[in-house]
Write a structure and sequence with these properties.
- The chain has about 130 residues and is mostly helical.
- It has a domain of about 55 residues.
- Helices cover about 60% and strands about 5% of the residues.
- A two-stranded antiparallel sheet has the order 1-2.
């Protein structure tokens, strides 16, 4: 039923006109204008190369010239599993605290995570 109401709203003839008027009158910022697609690609290249180098260092992929070849996915999954088990053994108390205690602290209101951390405004939260 709600989907039908939404579709009716979008089928109204005034919606595109009003939407376009708002878009036209909205002040454009420098973030609204996308640069040339080639420029975007060039700006992404350093992070892509860094990601590729990290994968090669982690031995997740092998680099043959400019060609990447993926190693054995099962061995990578096994390494990840071993790391997770090791982390759980070393930090079991922390993980239990996060899972059992911290998850039960409310986010909103006085005494909530926003209040305790000081990272968010909490006085106007609806509790």
């Amino acid at each position: 039923m709600a989907l039908k109401r939404i579709l009716i709203i979008f089928k109204n003839p005034w919606l595109p006109k009003d939407r376009n008027e708002i878009v036209r009158n909205y002040p454009r910022s420098r973030y609204d204008v996308l640069p040339d697609k080639h420029l975007v690609f060039q700006r992404m290249m350093p992070s892509q190369l860094a990601a590729r180098a990290a994968l090669v260092r982690a031995e997740a992929v092998k680099l043959n010239g400019e060609e990447l070849s993926f190693g054995n996915a099962e061995s990578i999954a096994e390494k990840i599993r071993e790391e997770l088990v090791s982390y759980h053994q070393q930090h079991g108390a922390l993980l239990s605290f996060l899972k059992d205690k911290l998850c039960n602290v409310p986010l909103f209101g006085v005494g909530g995570l926003k209040d305790r951390s000081g990272l968010g405004e909490f006085r106007y939260d609806v509790v």
